[in-house]
Amino acid sequence: MNGDTLNHRSSVLHTNTTNLKDHTLAKSTLEKACTKSNASSLWLRQSWVDELRWRVGEVSFMKWTADDVSAVLKCHPIPCLLAVFLLFFMRVEYTLPMIPPSSPPFDIGFVATVHLHRILSGSPVLNTILAGLNTVFVGMQTVYIIGTWVVEGRPRATIAALLMFTFRGILGYSTQLPLPQGFLGSGVDFPVGNVSFFLFYSGHVAASVIASLDMRRMQRSELAILFDIFNVLQFVRLLSTRGHYTIDLVVGIGAGMLFDSIAGKYIHKSHKTPTIDPNSNGDRKAFLVSPKLGNGTQ
């Protein structure tokens, strides 16, 4: 009986010892796993920190010095001035009261030309004469722009004008601005006959810019200067008669430059040089295959 009890106790002790060893082994394995996990986590965290530190170190402004800032101010004054204007107009925009719907738009060009508006209002004959002269100038623009293609074989200005008037029609129809108060119309103003027209943007100004840019490319500097002077006078007249808002005229200048550039890129990209029989009229059938137009400058 005592032997059986002893054997039972020995078996229990062996089992407990085995369980203790297994528990110790499991605990040791778990501790090792935790240690490896912590080490891996620390390594990943350190790698992320090192990566972030490297990224920050590669950021351009982190490498700037006082000499670099001074050089920017000295060598690039115009962008610095534009940055000042940005801050200034942000201040103006966020503090200026909005124009209520019941009030007419504020236009600084109308404020600047209020005296001329009074003169033209009191003199319909003078207003008609100036309108007629402006229409003549529009005719000059049209003849020159079309002539560069049909006479000289250079379609860039014509394509630019087509692009400009197409997008003017789209934008003008999309947002139809109200006619400015005090508008002084004339039967001889372009478009002739007191017909409706889109305000945004000014086709008068944009077409003049397109023609002037073409003249400069062709070294016709005197004619380009003359067109620029006429365009300035046209600018003032349109404000004085309330025929356009200031924004219409300013965007017209930008539109002329933009579409002239797009037309040049279009010609350059579309240019092909197929073999043309010199005895045929192939070079007259498609202006875009003319070798003269390869660089897109004409």
TrEMBL record:
PANTHER family: PHOSPHATIDYLCHOLINE:DIACYLGLYCEROL CHOLINEPHOSPHOTRANSFERASE 1-RELATED. The chain crosses the membrane at residues 71-90, 129-150, 157-175, 195-211. InterPro entries: AtPDCT1_2_TM_dom, PDCT1/2-like. It comes from the Eukaryota. It comes from Lactuca virosa. The keyword Transmembrane helix applies. The keyword Transmembrane applies. Pfam families: AtPDCT1_2 (PF24788). One of its GO terms (molecular function) is diacylglycerol cholinephosphotransferase activity. Keywords: Membrane, Transmembrane, Transmembrane helix. This is AtPDCT1/2 transmembrane domain-containing protein. Residues 106-265 form the AtPDCT1/2 transmembrane domain.
